[in-house]
């Protein structure tokens, strides 16, 4: 019989990937007293801090609170008080007041740099626990644990291996032995950037602006601090055929594409350094299972990648990492496979809803004709402040998050 906690639960976890999902999982595991190592294929820390800004909604902060990191993340964020939808003519279609939901659930909605969140998570894990330049090539399992193998010939041993290595996950591919379709392309590109642009009258602090236009164009922006603005120009493939970024700069081509849009869109683009604009082809994977096999499990984008339309990719990676860490903190070593299946069962439906809803919203931005765009805008004007807002918050603040996954009762002795 176990006489202490260390003997009663797993002792060591191996996390593959030092992105948001992997570091959140690692931070949660360490909080549970589980020895954890993180292995990242990229060799330099700077490469982990790429990317622009994004929104973290209330549910992400509720999850971060469970591992004691919500206040640290909020300190590096800007609280959003409004989410405003507009057309490319400047007409307001909907305006969500965020203070009420923040007060009711006890957690804010914030905008922040991706690098700011990554730094908080890295500090919580500790640099000494993150092994850079460690490219996973495979693993072997037995009744006692799992051994990870890396390209440099090194190995690591643990009770569980967690694949948090993103959309094109090596762990996922090897779990399926290579028999899996590629990620699903959404039909549009997000051109992301952060620019220096002071001026409250131009971009007021505390409002996330979400503009929907004709011709397959969208534009998102918000202030990150008194000097910086994050923005995202979303162009459908059909719209992108008019962008010639071989002969002209990305900034000039985007400025031309959005030249008829209302202020401050043009000024935001014009203020941005060319090298700051990063085009990202948007992908997800259709909802599905198969995240857990033996002592190996997927989290974050390796398990449930989604498009950007709900701003929930990072939020769901955080939720999954916290939920998995909490469950493993109650799991004896010989019950790891059963616990991983319980984690997948608890998280699969919620993340599938997020993936599907985000995909459907994205299709609204693929509309090109002016009559259909006007019909879409009319629908948003009629329903986004009421029906859509209620559905979004119903999905976001599902109380299953607080309950977390439950390890089912054990079966007959010797079964898993």
UniProtKB/TrEMBL annotation:
Q: Which GO terms describe its molecular function?
A: FAD binding; monooxygenase activity
- Is the keyword Oxidoreductase assigned to this protein? yes
Keywords from UniProt, A to Z, are: Monooxygenase, Oxidoreductase
Under SUPFAM superfamilies, the record lists: FAD/NAD(P)-binding domain (SSF51905)
Q: Which InterPro entries match?
A: FAD-bd, FAD-dep_Monooxygenase_BioMet, FAD/NAD-bd_sf
Pfam families under this entry? FAD_binding_3 (PF01494)
Name of this protein? FAD-binding domain-containing protein
What is the species listed in this Swiss-Prot or TrEMBL entry?
A: Streptomyces glaucescens
């Amino acid at each position: 019989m176990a006489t202490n906690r260390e003997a009663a639960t797993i002792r060591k976890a191996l996390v593959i990937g030092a992105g948001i999902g992997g570091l959140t999982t690692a931070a949660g595991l360490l909080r549970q007293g589980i020895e954890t190592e993180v292995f990242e294929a990229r060799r330099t820390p700077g490469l982990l801090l790429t990317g622009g800004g994004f929104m973290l909604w209330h549910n992400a902060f509720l999850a971060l609170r469970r591992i004691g990191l919500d206040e640290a993340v909020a300190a590096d964020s800007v609280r959003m008080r409004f989410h405003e939808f507009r057309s490319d003519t400047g007409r307001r279609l909907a305006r969500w007041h965020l203070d009420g939901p923040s007060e009711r659930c006890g957690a804010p909605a914030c905008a922040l740099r991706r690098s700011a969140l990554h730094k908080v998570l890295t500090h919580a894990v500790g640099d000494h626990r993150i092994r850079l330049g460690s490219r996973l090539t495979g693993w072997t399992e037995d009744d006692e644990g799992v051994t990870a193998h890396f390209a440099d010939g090194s190995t690591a041993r643990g009770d569980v291996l967690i694949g948090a290595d993103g959309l094109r996950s090596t762990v996922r591919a090897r779990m399926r032995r290579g028999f899996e379709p590629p990620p699903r392309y959404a039909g549009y590109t997000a051109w992301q950037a952060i620019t220096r642009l002071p001026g409250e009258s131009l971009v007021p602090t505390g409002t996330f602006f979400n503009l929907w236009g004709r011709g397959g164009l969208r534009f998102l922006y918000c202030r990150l601090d008194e000097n910086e603005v994050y923005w995202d120009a979303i162009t459908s493939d059909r719209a992108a055929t008019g962008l010639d970024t071989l002969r002209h700069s990305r900034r000039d081509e985007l400025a031309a594409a959005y030249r008829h849009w209302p202020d401050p869109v043009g000024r935001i683009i014009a203020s941005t350094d060319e090298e700051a604009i990063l085009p990202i082809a948007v992908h997800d994977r259709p909802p599905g299972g198969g995240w857990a096999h033996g002592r190996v499990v997927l989290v974050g984008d390796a398990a449930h990648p989604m498009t950007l339309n709900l701003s929930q990719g990072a939020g769901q990676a955080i939720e999954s990492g916290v939920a998995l860490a909490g469950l493993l903190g109650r799991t004896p070593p010989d019950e790891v496979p059963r616990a991983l299946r319980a984690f997948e069962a608890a998280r699969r439906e919620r993340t599938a809803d997020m993936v599907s809803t985000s995909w459907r919203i994205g299709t609204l931005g693929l509309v090109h004709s002016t009559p259909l765009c006007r019909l879409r805008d009319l629908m948003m004007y009629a329903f986004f402040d009421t029906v859509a807002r209620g559905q979004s918050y119903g999905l976001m603040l599902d109380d299953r998050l607080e309950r977390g996954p439950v390890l089912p009762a054990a079966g007959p002795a010797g079964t898993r």
